[in-house]
Amino acid sequence: MSDTQKSDLALLLLRVSLGVMALAHGFLLKVLTFTPAGTAQFFESVGYPAFVAYLVILGETLGGLALIAGVFTRLTAVLLLPILIGATLMHVGNGWMFSKPNGGWEFPAFWTVALVVQALLGPGAYSIGRLLPTSLPSFVRA
């Protein structure tokens, strides 16, 4: 296996992992477990307007799907950054370790860095975006 193939495989693993995590947090956790109304209530309890919860749910769910597919990869990674920076800031008072009560900030901080890496590197060769016509804008394919 060549270095290029290894890099493309690494990008696939990074992109799909980030996508699955975003989808799990947006849909499985916030929609199916806590419900959108419950998520909105939590957001209000920590000082955010309720509508922000719905934007986060939408962003994580659609962003997860886009990352898994490898379309809008760079744009999606950048658009997910405010959500993860917000999550990091929400957990910073709980300490470093995510095993602390209410979770620490290590996991969302790492997730933030991984999204920056994904945005810098793009989707890799194994993405649906690479199969789209070259006449489409590059931010769609990358």
TrEMBL record:
Keywords: Cell membrane, Membrane, Transmembrane, Transmembrane helix
Transmembrane portions of the chain: 12-31, 51-72, 79-98, 110-132
Domain of life: Bacteria
Compartments reported by the entry: Cell membrane
GO cellular component, one term: plasma membrane
Membrane topology: Multi-pass membrane protein
Membership in a protein family: Belongs to the DoxX family.
Protein name in UniProt: Membrane protein
Species of provenance: Elstera litoralis
